[in-house]
Amino acid sequence: MIAIRKRMLALFMLLSLFVGAAYAQDDIVIDFYFPSATANDAEGIFQGYADRFAEENPGIRINPVFTGSYTDTRNTILTELQGGGAGPDVAVMLSIDLYSFAEEGYIAPAQAFIDSMENGEAYASDFFPALMSNGVDEDGNIWSIPFQRSTPILYYNADLLAEAGYDSPPANNAELVEIAQALTTSERHGLLVPVAGGFPIWMYQSFAIAFGRNIVDDDPTAVYFNTPEAVAAVEFLRSLGAELGVGPAGGAAWGDTPVAFLAGQAAMIYHTTGNLTRILNGADFEVGVWYLPSGPAGEDGAGYGAPTGGGNLYIFDDGSKSQAELDAIWKWVTFLSSPAIQADWGATTGYIAANASAWEAEPLASLALEHPQYLVARDQLQHAGKEFSSYATITIQGIINGTLESILTGESEDAQAAMDAAQAQIDGILADYR
Amino acid sequence: MTRNSRVAQTIAATLTGAIGLIFLLPLVFTILVSIRPENEPVTQGSIFFGSEITLSLYQHALKIAPWGLHYLNSIIFVGGTLLVQMFTVTCAAYAFARLRFAGRNLLLVVILLQLMIPSGVLLVQNFRMINRLGLFDTHLALMLPYWGSAFGMLLLRQAFREVPIELEEAARIDGANLTQVIRHVYVVNAIPAYVAFALVSLSSHWNEFLWPFIITRSEDIRPLTVGLNKLIKTTDQGAFYGQLMAGTLIVITPLVILFLLFQRQFVESFARSGIR
User: Fold this and answer.
1) Which of A152, A265, A361, B84 has the CA that lies 20 to 30 A from B117?
2) How many structural domains are present in chain A?
3) B138, A258: Cβ pair inside 8 Å?
């Protein structure tokens, strides 16, 4: 009998080892899930922020959890919440994930927290408006707070341009084509636009906006994929490779593009500001950065344009969290989006610091002084538009990506027909939400 | 005669050599990419070694995750899974091979059906179960869903059925009880099947990513595959293959050394299970 009890005890102790010790303290613990999309040691940086936060806020502990790519992060959180798990308290997810999570009632709008702040108005208006566009619903309520944001910009090899007699970067598509053709040799592409590899939508949106009309607006039940502007944009993009030969037909691959640029195999590239630090550090030539060239001038107001991208901070609450917990969560969100942290995060990673006053804070202020290229990325934001997002975002994004890819690779020759078909399919899906 | 056999031998050696080379190529490529500067195009420097040979990617990869801890977790995961599987699979295999009970065939079909359900489909349900048991983010949560194995049961059932029933009867006459019969008659005669099952189980769980990734949050629990995931950073800056390759080599090197040490035993056990 005693022997059996001893065995049971041993088994119990073994099991409790597996289960892990429960937290003894009464601290509020905030589970913070973050994806990693940069070469830097994101885990180390976040742990540093968490320690700093804990020092300033005794009684609150941050538990940073790495959750893979953006897609992994979304799937992890969805599985956990659908499986009845607690889920994170705060997470960094794509700014376009808003409707998928708001629909299910998993997240809480930041608006209520902002309203309860003394200086809420000032806090919210410090963020660049373009970076807020994906975090706001059609009624103007703020749901998520910009954190690690980016936008595509034009990188150019200033040495090569100067050699060919161009002392300024292309300002519009006509100049873009002209310079790209002049700089194309048998060993060098004039221009690489990374639209190959399954996710052309982001780069494509730059062209759609420049041609005069974004494919989305504030209404999450509307998509404008077969407008004349949308069609003209993809036809121009296709012509770069297929007819003009300034880049590979079908476009370049995302990861190869900056590598080719650094190796001198491409004179100009479209790429994310998220790569600015890496490109500035890696280049042995003068790197120029400029706004994406504007579209065809016309009465429809075509001009500069780029979508925004990257991740926002989301607050998870199904209504069961206590006021003390919610206060702690909001403190962490405001900490991460504060000018001091944004300046540090932006300078380390290359993401665009999301609030205007971060650009006056160190270390970003001196970095921008040393490399004015960072300021170009910031200033282009005044022309930037909303990244594609709607109800059923993931499904519709898949349809658009598939359609664009088939047009760009030449599989669908008639762009208008392919986009009409896609638009009909998209309208069918969105009809349920209207 | 001798000349013929020598020619045949040469051909066989060349063929195996060629096949071996094909299998070796990814590993060679992994090593080469891991020692050239990060993201250097192949056109730069020597085609094999780039502009310089550097170990900086290893330094970086080593810093990014607690590899020792991940290693330990992987060993606990696959070892704990296999240990329990061996027990459950043996019991079930004996029952289906030798015992007669109502609904045996129906039950067998149900278990067979389970082989055809992809594990991804069960992700949310498995999560729900583990979460309700209060095991979320524990070693136990990793192993629990795998403690039964339809594949292992079927493999051993087949092996047990090939053991002559007379052996069991003789053991019974000598006074052996059920446990002794299973141990001394069936298990010892099915060692090659056990080895084959162990290798399949170990390698599939060693490489498992999705379930450990979803069910764990702390570094203290997460196995190697989840640690490696930290090196795959493709979203914003493109892939950093060099770093990933360096990490992969850090992860596989101990296994390769282990294999080289026990190579003979590995190959022999494979050969023996093949002879059957």
Assistant:
1) B84
2) 2
3) no
For the record, the structure tokens of A345 come out as 């995060």
Measured CA to CA, the distance from residue A154 to residue A242 in angstroms comes to 21
pLDDT in tens, chain A (434 residues): 445 555 555 555 455 444 444 444 578 999 999 987 665 677 888 999 999 999 999 999 999 998 888 888 998 999 999 888 889 999 999 999 998 898 888 999 999 999 999 999 999 999 999 999 999 988 889 999 999 999 999 999 999 999 999 999 998 888 999 999 999 998 899 999 999 877 899 999 999 998 888 999 888 899 999 999 999 999 999 999 888 889 888 888 888 888 889 889 999 999 998 888 888 888 889 999 999 998 876 544 468 889 999 899 999 998 888 999 999 999 999 999 999 999 999 888 888 999 999 999 989 999 999 999 999 989 999 888 899 999 888 899 999 999 999 999 988 889 999 999 999 999 999 998 88
> Is A256 within 8 Å of chain B by CB?
yes
What are the CA-CA distances from residue A116 to residues A126, A159, A326, B266 (Å)? Answer: 17, 53, 12, 67
Of B41, B135, B214, the CB nearest to A260: B41
Look up the ipTM and state it.
0.75
C-beta separation of A74 from A94 below 8 A:
yes
Q: Are residues A289 and A257 in the same domain?
A: yes
Note the CATH number of domain B68-275.
Answer: 1.10.3720.10
The answer to whether the Cβ–Cβ distance between A83 and B127 falls below 8 Å is: yes
Residues A300, A322 share a domain: no
* Residue A432 CB neighbours (<10 A): 9
In a domain, A12, yes or no: no
Same domain, A343 and A418: no
Are A239 and A212 found together in one domain? yes
Question: How big is the CA angle at B229 (ends B225 and B233), to the nearest 5 degrees?
Answer: 165
Cβ contact B237–A82 (<8 Å): no
Question: In terms of residue numbers, what domain contains A91?
Answer: 22-150+309-385
Identity of the residue numbered B107:
L
What is the residue extent of each domain of chain B? 1-54, 68-275
Which H or E run includes B144?
Answer: none
Together in a domain, A180 and A298: yes
Which of B128, B213, B232 has its CB closest to that of A83? B128
